[in-house]
Structure formats: structure tokens, C-alpha cells
Amino acid sequence: MANVDIRIRKVEALATPDELYTQFPVDEATSDSIHQTRQTVNDIIQGRDRRLLAIVGPCSLHDPVAALDYAKKLKTLSRDIEDEMFVVMRTYFEKPRTVGGWKGLILDPKMDGSYDIGGGIALARSLLLEIVKLGLPVGCEVLDPIIPQYIDELMSWSSIGARTTESQIHRNLASGLSVAVGFKNSTSGDLVTAVNAIKSAYQPASFIGMDGKGASAIFRTTGNDCCHLILRGGDQSPNYYEDDVESARLLLEKEGLEPAIIVDCSHSNSRKNYERQKRVLRSIIDQVCWGEKAIRGFMLESNLLPGCQKIPDDLANLKYGVSVTDACIGWDETQRILVHACELLRKARLEGGSVQPL
Ligand SMILES: O=C[C@H](O)[C@H](O)COP(=O)(O)O
Ligand SMILES: C=C(OP(=O)(O)O)C(=O)O
């Protein structure tokens, strides 16, 4: 075996998905509630529920206490706006980096480069469980193809990021995920990769993975009919404007796909300036009020407090409730703009279904 694994420094044992299921089991009531919230998400994506899917939460979760604190506030708010929006908390544990940086709580829960993945995966599952037990559905980006085995059961929505939408591995994975999957347009702004991804994930696939007992296995999927497009803007410009949404809708329709679009208010749509997220949201709400039926929801990067912080060498200096990845809007702003957006939607509905453009 002299020529094997020459660049592998060490191989360590990791708990199997089944072991974590036993350690952090989902009770029947929670499981029923997840079944229900998944169905609601699917109904919105497929146009059977007219409400907007609001995927709202931190860019990444790094502090379970702050995450739960945030989740409780979001749950309360979600009840006040449920007539117009169905809220799913953004619970992102895996961060795809442009070059390098902290890769999220699952890979590096101690945020010190020690990569205690066993601890991270257990922490993510237990935190997700606490959040869903509040009755708040959660959505994650799926990056590593094995990780869904540990947490898929708890999610109500998921996304494939701009950097991985073109990857066959991720398209195959999406074809077998239990939830609706949003594919982001590429970082360059290209939509075709995401549209191809939706078509690809619709098909059944076969691939190699790891089963609940940790054994290599062949997975054969049914295909996923709840995939959709996420407009996140591109290197050159945002793509949330009316003409962009219309072009995206026409492209989906031309391909015979459900015209289901989620607009990401952050990333290149906000030109990475968190303060601009509210103008993206305002534009989306206007478009919906003017009758654009393809917009099925939006994503908002929001945290307890606004902005972001670098991970300090001494973690005792971490500020509570502030993002360690992309800058987010704070809770007060989140609450204000979501409540206002709902008021606008209600008003438009009262005035006759939808407001007509000038
Ligand atoms: O959403 C988070 C980031 O935009 C994404 O992970 C890329 O981050 P980076 O460009 O800072 O690496
Ligand atoms: C990484 C993300 O987005 P994107 O893939 O659009 O860059 C994200 O939403 O956290």
C-alpha cells in the first residue's frame, strides 16, 4: 500500500448518521410539523400557495445561543406575517469560500482551524432540532454531498450555491433531496447553468454515497420536481430588476419549467452592501404587487445585530449576534422591513388582487 493516500495526513472516525439520529432523535410531533412545512414550501414553489417564501436569517450560524435567540424572535415575527409570507430560517452551516476563510460551523465549530467535524456535525443537528421544535422551518445550503445524511430529515428547503450549481455531484444530490432545492445563478451572473441544473435535478440519478450505517452505497433517486431558480446577481450587476425577473421567467418557460424564482436580496444583488438589501426587497414587493407571479420568495441575510466582524484570535472578543461571514441587516431592521413589506402586499390585495403598473 506504499503508493496509497500519499497526501492524506490522517483518517479519523466520525459518528454515522444513524448514531446521530439516535443521539438527537426527532419526535413524532416535530416530524409531522416538518412534513407539513415542506409541503407548504413545495406549494409556494409550485404556485399552489400565493404567499411568498421568506428565507431569512444569518449568513452563517456560528454561535448556537445567538442562533436560538434569533430563531425565537423570527418565530414570533413569522406569526404576524403568515398571511403574506411563509418564513423559513436560513440556517447555513457550510460556507463555500471564493478562496479561503472559515468554512462554517460543521467543518470548524471551534473557529480556530482545528476542524472538529465530529463536534460540528453533532452541534448542527442538535441546533437544528431545537429550532424546528419551536415550529420554525429551516433551510440550509447543501455543499458537502455526505452531510445531508446527517441533517436532511430536519430541513424544509435547501439551496445549491452559485459556486456549485454547475457541478454534477450537486445536481445529482438535489435530485434525491427530500426538500425543494433552489439553484443560484453563477457568480458571473449566468442563468443558464442554474436552468440546466434544474433540468438535470428533475431527472432520476444514480451515484455513490454513504448510507446511515456509514457504508458505501449506491443511491438511486426519483428526481426532484421542486427545484427552482435563485437570482443572486452577478459580477457585473444585480439581477433583481423587473426586466431581469421577466427574462428569467421567459427562460424558464421556454425550457418548459415551472417559472419559480426566488430573489436573493444579498450577495451581488446588494452589491455586498447589506444596507441595500431593503431596496431589493422593496423592488420585489413592487413587482409582486404589479402582478409578477414568477417571484415565489426572497432571501434576506439578517442577524441580531447589523454588519459583520472578523473572527478574532481570542474568541472571547467575538461580538454577540454579529455575522462572521457576510454582513447582515440587524433584527430591528429585519422586523421593520418585513412588516412593511407585508402591509404593502395586503394593501395591494385589498385594492383588487394586484396593483396594475402605470
Ligand atoms: O455567503 C457567503 C459568501 O458570500 C460566500 O461564502 C463567499 O464568501 P467569500 O467570497 O468571502 O469567500
Ligand atoms: C454562499 C451564498 O451565496 P452564493 O452561493 O449566492 O454566493 C450564501 O447564500 O450563503
Describe this structure in words.
- With 358 residues, the protein is α/β, with parallel strands linked by helices.
- The protein has a single domain, classed as Aldolase class I (TIM Barrel, Alpha-Beta Barrel), CATH 3.20.20.70.
- Helices cover 36% and strands 14% of the residues.
- The protein is built from ten helices and ten strands.
- The chain has helices at residues 17-23, 28-45, 64-80, 117-133, 148-151, 168-176, 192-202, 242-254, 277-289, 331-350; strands at 52-57, 85-90, 138-141, 157-160, 180-184, 206-210, 216-220, 227-231, 261-264, 295-301.
- The strands form two sheets. The protein has an eight-stranded parallel β-barrel with strand order 1-2-3-4-5-8-9-10, surrounded by seven helices.
- Helix 3 (64-80) packs parallel to helix 4, helix 6 packs across helix 7 (192-202) and helix 9 packs parallel to helix 10 (331-350).
- The longest helix has 20 residues, at 331-350.
- The radius of gyration is 20 Å and the shape is globular.
- 44% of the residues are buried.
- The model has no long low-confidence stretch (mean pLDDT 97).
- The site of phosphoenolpyruvate (PEP) has 10 residues, from loops.
Topology of this structure?
Layout: H1 17-23, H2 28-45, E1 52-57, H3 64-80, E2 85-90, H4 117-133, E3 138-141, H5 148-151, E4 157-160, H6 168-176, E5 180-184, H7 192-202, E6 206-210, E7 216-220, E8 227-231, H8 242-254, E9 261-264, H9 277-289, E10 295-301, H10 331-350
Parallel strand pairs: 1-2, 1-10, 2-3, 3-4, 4-5, 5-8, 8-9, 9-10
Antiparallel strand pairs: 6-7
The structure holds erythose-4-phosphate and phosphoenolpyruvate.
Phosphoenolpyruvate (PEP) binds next to loops.
InterPro entries: Aldolase_TIM, DAHP1/KDSA, DAHP_synth_1
Domain DAHP synthetase I/KDSA: 39-337
Enzyme class: transferase
